[in-house]
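Appendix C reproduces, verbatim, an entry submitted by the partner laboratory led by Prof. M.T., so that reviewers can inspect both the input and the predicted structure.
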Amino acid sequence: MTRTTHLRAALTAALAAAALVGTVTSANAESVPPQSGDAYVANPGEQGLVELYSAPDPGQMGPMNWEGRLGGWGPGNFESRHWADNDYTEIQFTGCSVSSGTGTSVSVKLWQAIPFNLDKDMGNNTLTYCFGGPNNTSRGEWNAYYSGGDNRYFTIPMINGSSTIRTTVSVQKVYVDTTAAD
């Protein structure tokens, strides 16, 4: 076999494996999401609140006060912009939806950026309430200090409980709150 034939065979096998591993989640469109612990009423006037919106490039976070939305994020595809913080972080999602099927949850993983080293995984929060409507807000909280870095960012490792799902998530508004005083 030639090198091209080996490469073509490997790519075909990888695509077949990905198709077999993918999961499909469905739900009744008439169902109402249950009340959950992540439900939150956003208060745009809170001290320490930083509003992040996506930039025109898909999945890239724009500067503060950017008028837009986060869209087209798949599991592990992008990371948010970094912000200065090393204590308390609250991330709020308002108006979540998925590109296909019914959205039920999105996992948000917070990272501590450590210069010249591996970034610190600070854990996940699963947000569900934001899928209940365009004004529903979910929030996740992290309250920890890590030495070696003072910037944080988040990624989306799972949608509807799956890291291999082919759908993407969009969020009407993303807020990052860096003060626990509210």
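The helical segments are 3-21. Additional entries are available on request from the coordinating office.
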